[in-house]
Structures are given as structure tokens and as C-alpha cells.
Amino acid sequence: MSTNRCDDCPLSGRREFLRDATAWLAAAAFAPLPLRFGRAIAIRGNEHAYPIPDTDGATIDRDAQVIVVRYQGKAYVFNLSCPHQNTALRWHPEDGQFQCPKHHSRYTPDGVFISGRATRSMDRFAVKRDGANVVADLDRLFQQDKDAGDWDAAFITV
């Protein structure tokens, strides 16, 4: 005879499934995102074209001082420098965050400020899609605090 009222409940299997699915989704949300290094595949004046990554992760183009990120169905192109004092940001795949090595400002993969001395999120370049590429206009840099609408719209859906 059962002492647990849910042992015979047809929903107990669903509860276990939901518990396990929630744990899996939480683990996936914090899974390390890979870091790659690359260069623009085409440059036309101030526009740099990069292949849209096949999976979530970050690609750093040291020559152009940009970071290309694919994250949760969107692609972004960021300035490599921290908005606080222009120190090159670093990607911490184990945390899934960008961090400034100078003053430890931290940012989510989509560039949103988490903590530290910075006063705004990472600066985003204007982007457009060109086939399988994301094209960044390196003359059009948006700051979250000054260009909020443009900053919010500076991504492509992948």
C-alpha cells in the first residue's frame, strides 16, 4: 500500500519530465559558448562581412577590433573595447560572459551590462544580413545610453 499520494497519480511521470526538462534547459542556458578567432570575409569601405556562425558562440576579429556573436537566434557585432575605458574585452566561455580585464565589468553574450565600473552595455555596430553573412557598418556604432533605439535594433535574426 502506498503512503505517497502521487505514486499512483498519472501526473507523476509528467512532474518528473518537467523537473528533468527544466534542469536540462537551465544547464543549456549556462553552457559554455565557444570562442573563435577570424577575419572579415569581405570588406567594402566601412562594411565588414562575416559568416553567420552555425552555432551560438563568439568570434573575435582582432584586426577590425570587433566581436561577432551568435546567441539565442540572433547575431550581433560589437566593438571589442569595453565602453568604460576602451580596454579589449575578453570572452569567458566557462561563464558565458564578456569581461573587461582592467576593471572587471561583465556583459552577457548579447552585450548587456551585468556589473562593474562601466555605465552601459557593450557598443553595437549597425548590421544587416547579406545571404549567409552578417555585414557590420563600422562607421555606425551605437551606445546603449545615447542611441537606445538603434542599439536595441542592432542585430539580425538567424
Summarize the structure.
The chain has 2 helices and 13 strands.
What this model shows, in words?
This protein is of the alpha+beta class and 158 residues long. The model is unreliable at 20-30 (pLDDT under 50). The chain contains two helices and 13 strands. It has a five-stranded mixed β-sheet with strand order 1-4-5-6-13, with no helix packed on it. The protein has a four-stranded antiparallel β-sheet with strand order 2-3-12-11. A four-stranded antiparallel β-sheet has the order 7-8-9-10, with no helix packed on it. The longest helix has 18 residues, at 12-29. It folds into two domains: 1-30; 35-157, Rieske [2Fe-2S] iron-sulphur domain (Rieske Iron-sulfur Protein, 3-layer Sandwich). The chain starts with 11 loop residues before the first helix and ends with a strand.
What's the rounded overall pLDDT mean? 85
What radius of gyration results from the CA coordinates?
20 Å
According to CATH, the homologous superfamily of the largest domain is: Rieske [2Fe-2S] iron-sulphur domain
Order of helices and strands: HEEEEEEEEEEEEHE
Return the domain count. Answer: 2
The span between the termini is: 54 Å
Backbone structural class: alpha+beta
CATH architecture of the largest domain: 3-layer Sandwich
Helix content: 10-25%
